[in-house]
Model the fold of this input.
Amino acid sequence: MKNHLSVLSIWYNNFMLKKIKDIHYKELFLYGFYMSYIVLTTIATVVDFWINNHLDALVDCISVVIASLAFWYYLRTKKHELASILLFWIASGVILLFIVKNEFDIGIIFTLLIPMVAFILLSTKKVIIHVGIYFVLLGFIFAYGYVVFDTHPLLYEVKHMSAYIIAMLFVIAFGIFYHIAIEQSYQELELANRQKTFLLKEIHHRVKNNLNIIASILGLQKLESPSEEVHALIDQNRLRLESIAMAHEILYRCDNLAHIDFKTYIEKLSAHILRTESHGAGICMEIDISPLELSIEKMIQFGLMVNEMMTNSIKYAFPNNEGTIRISLKKENDVYRFIYADNGKGLEEPLAQHGFGQSLIEMSVEQLDGVLLIENRNGLQYTIVLKGLDDEDINR
Done:
């Protein structure tokens, strides 16, 4: 049972919450109104049929079919305004029809709810047009009631009619307040969010450009020294800067400015390192990474580690310039297991003699709150067990 609940929780977090976050609030309201109307009217259809109220059941059934077709059409075309108008008039038609058929019984109270659908879903111009037509039709229905009935507890008792009119005026006033205040506030907030998103993207773009400029300056400095050792150090530092710049580039190009997709980043980084370092060597990449998104701080730590591991493999692991590098990330219970492995010749000297690159890997593992294990059999393998990738940094 616990496993089933866990699976449902993961599905809800992965799909439902992510989709809801990406939906405009008016679309969310439209989804809710359609689903509520279809479900509740279907229940009303069953109840009416059960109590032998066949005519009402037929009307309800027809309206469910029409609403379902309208909703299906909306899902295919995404024509929000048309779908909103259809829903408004489907619900209005059924309720107005039931008012006449059931001789102004308690169901008339639902006439107060219909304008709210229009106020929430439609633009100001459409609200004026459709709500205006709705109240004209409602006025004709009340006039019909006065013609047909000589006495009626709603139509002819002042306290009932005045209560109904006051409630309707309250609904209209609330709808106008919503449209003027809440709608305008939301639009201003949405504009401010777009501006902030633009500025954040611009910052990431400029950081990326500045890092690339520094990397280019380092490249120019190679010309000042004939030493191959100096050239190698400069190239290593250029790749480190480029791995950081790549994280900012991904954030600049995607909609999510808080997290970076792990697989996308590792694929781009590894391809860049291969192009830069392997010079056409026959080195293959195998990448197997579970869905995961991390903050830019943690992604940069991974980038620095992968950069050091790959450059070492390309330079020292494959004497014949042929081999395979494997990178994987899997979740096991409450921890993530990151594995980097090559099938090269492995280490030929004690690990303690390795210098800055190994120190950088160990420092990055410490920053990520991980545990590092190095195996030197059938090639070199780094295994990092990570406990620091908690829910605050993961957009599941």
